[in-house]
């Protein structure tokens, strides 16, 4: 069973940056396509980005292209989300998720989830 643990969230001013990390254990991280999602209060969970198991296929939500960057280090069993030029509307709980040998954008398709990390962007 794969466990995912996010870290790196916090409070940041608008225009600032944060890097989220998601560490995996208990399974074969190198076989997992990984995704980042976010959920703001009162809103549905939203796709942010996804990366294939060897990192050669990356998908971003159109609205976030150019500000967010997903990457992974299979030697460290970790996927990252670099977030730049943050805006108050980026405030949400950010989740990482994993799915074997797939790169998908629907949350319902993911098999493994972390507990989330809060990101708050102040204006």
Write a structural description.
With 123 residues, the chain is mainly beta. Helix content is 0%, strand content 51%. The strands form 2 sheets. Strands 2, 4, 5, 6, 9, 10 and 11 form a 7-stranded mixed beta sheet that branches. A 4-stranded antiparallel beta sheet has the order 1-3-8-7, with no helix packed on it. The mean pLDDT is 96.
Defining key terms:
51% strand, globular, 123 residues, single chain, four-stranded antiparallel sheet, mainly beta
| Helical residues, percent | under 10%
Sequence stretches where pLDDT stays below 50 over 5 or more residues: none
- The fraction of residues in strands falls at over 45%
Shape: globular
> Main beta sheet, described?
7 strands, mixed
Structural class estimated from helices and strands:
mainly beta
Kindly, what is the distance between the CA atoms of the first and last residues, rounded to a whole number of angstroms? 40 Å
**What string gives the helices and strands in order?**
EEEEEEEEEEE
Number of helical regions: 0
Tell me how many strands there are: 11
Oligomer: single chain
Radius of gyration: 13 Å
Q: What is the mean pLDDT?
A: 96
């Amino acid at each position: 069973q794969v466990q995912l643990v996010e870290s790196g969230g916090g409070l940041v001013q608008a225009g600032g940056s944060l890097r989220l990390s998601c560490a995996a254990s208990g399974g074969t991280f190198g076989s997992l396509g990984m995704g980042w999602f976010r959920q703001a209060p009162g809103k549905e969970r939203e796709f942010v980005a996804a990366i294939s198991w060897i990192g050669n296929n990356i998908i971003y939500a159109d609205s976030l292209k150019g500000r967010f960057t997903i990457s992974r280090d299979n030697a460290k069993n970790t996927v990252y989300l670099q977030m730049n030029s943050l805006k108050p509307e980026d405030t949400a709980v950010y989740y990482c998720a994993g799915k074997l040998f797939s790169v998908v954008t629907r949350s319902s398709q993911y098999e493994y989830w972390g507990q989330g990390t809060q990101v708050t962007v102040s204006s």
